[in-house]
Write a structure and sequence with these properties.
Structural class: alpha/beta
Number of strands: 11
Shape: globular
Strand content: 5-15%
Largest sheet: 6 strands, parallel
């Protein structure tokens, strides 16, 4: 197998650099060596260490953020985006499923009459700081019908956060599976977690969620004119065991496949093209500009003086000169003061 020197930077807090979705997957086709002097880096959005590497940069984005192709060479994200061989749609839920299987988690998909006798509905979230207000509003509205058990740290009403989300969710007929925000393609693990726990997801988020999952198998709030109308549909299912079990029995994937036939081989082909034909497209930021060539806050006089230069390239050079000169003045004042 071809040897690939790889490094991971700007990943999330508990990311394991040696054992993760990417190392496990890539090891099926390549010999992976984690190196401080890599041929390629895989990064995310939690830092700017990627700028210390001038090899091809591959970004994975699990947040509702569009890839910046000026800063990165290749991207994996939620976006339904066609950009030659530089982008592949890899929703976060696909990685979560791999992680669950890797950890030995098994899932019971056998439907019985007892499934209709479970507790009503659950809600598992850590916080609500960056979430759309509709999530909290829906929790309170649905709770007027029956108690919704909140097992996360946010709005917890069961005496403390649960340790195992899967074991908690499988006790319930329904699971509130709202995203933090709504954007086409932004479909995270939340809806998949409910399906795997054999609990019908009550979903809000991507208007294109039907591309990822079978719309008949869950309740999409966006299909209803109001929250009250959606809640009435939930109450109808809750009160009719036959209808509930019929919906619960439906497959959660469309045609038993993930969206766009996403599978390990498709992801490996994406990486194989990168590793075989690497290109560097990124444009690192200049001293006073970001990756898009934009200046930050610039004093009016500097903008005015530089605007008098008619040639664009010279205008940028002159503006950078004035900015650096202004920085030096401020520094000298600071040194004199102290």
């Amino acid at each position: 197998m071809k040897k690939i020197k790889l490094n991971f930077v700007d990943m999330w807090v508990d990311f394991d650099i040696e054992d993760n979705f990417f190392t496990r997957l890539l090891s099926k086709r390549f010999e992976i060596e984690i190196s401080s002097e890599p041929d390629f880096i895989i990064c995310s959005v939690f830092g700017s260490d990627f700028k210390n590497f001038n090899c091809p940069r591959i970004i994975f984005i699990g947040e509702n953020i569009v890839p910046n192709f000026n800063a990165y060479d290749y991207a994996l994200s939620f976006e339904f985006l066609q950009y030659g061989d530089r982008h592949l749609r890899l929703p976060l839920y696909y990685m979560y499923l791999d992680n669950y299987i890797h950890k030995g988690q098994t899932f019971d998909r056998n439907i019985t009459k007892n499934d209709a006798q479970r507790k009503f509905c659950n809600f598992v979230y850590s916080n609500n700081l960056q979430a759309d207000p509709i999530r909290e509003e829906f929790f309170h509205q649905l709770s007027k019908y029956k108690q919704v058990d909140s097992g996360g740290r946010f709005l917890n009403n069961i005496g403390g956060p649960v340790k195992n989300k899967y074991e908690f969710q499988k006790q319930y007929k329904f699971s509130i599976s709202f995203e933090n925000s709504a954007h086409p393609g932004y479909t995270t693990e939340k809806i998949l977690d409910a399906f795997l726990a054999k609990s019908i997801p009550i979903y809000w988020g991507s208007p294109m969620v039907g591309n990822d999952f079978n719309k008949d198998a869950f309740i999409d709030i966006n299909d209803y004119k109001s929250i009250d109308e959606a809640i009435n549909a939930i109450i109808e299912l809750d009160c009719d065991d036959e209808k509930y079990l019929e919906k619960l029995s439906l497959p959660y994937l469309n045609n038993d496949k993930f969206c766009d036939d996403l599978n390990d081989d498709k992801i490996l082909d994406f990486f194989e093209n990168i590793f075989s034909n690497p290109h560097i497209y990124h444009k690192d930021s200049l001293p006073n500009r970001d990756e898009n060539g934009h200046y930050g806050k610039v004093p009016f006089m500097i903008r005015f003086l530089s605007a008098l230069v008619p040639i664009k390239s010279m205008r940028h050079q002159y503006r950078d000169y004035l900015i650096n000169k202004d920085k030096m003045k401020k520094y000298q004042k600071f040194v004199k003061k102290y």
